Amino acid sequence: MVDGGAAPVENYQPPVIVWLVEYTDDRQPGWRFQAGAFTTEVEARKLVRRLNKTGSYGDLSINMVPVHQTIQDWERDRRAVVRPTASLLKDPRADSGR
Known about the structure:
The protein is α+β, with helices and mostly antiparallel strands. Helix content is 28%, strand content 26%. The protein has a domain at 16-80. The chain is elongated.
């Protein structure tokens, strides 16, 4: 979230990253619901695997959410130019078949 070339900001606190496990429900088309939230992607993936086994949850996904302490911290991160690289966007499961 932080651009290495940006000037330091007094009292800036980087965001905490939260990994939300989300799902859809056919009874509420277009809506997404949270099954759980974790501080690591590893734990979020564990919940996805567990819920997939039940077959009761539709379209499970993981959403990474940066949680800022202040609006100033959020604004500071918005000013920093951060572009995801292809490696960040790639689904890690895509390599499993190679």
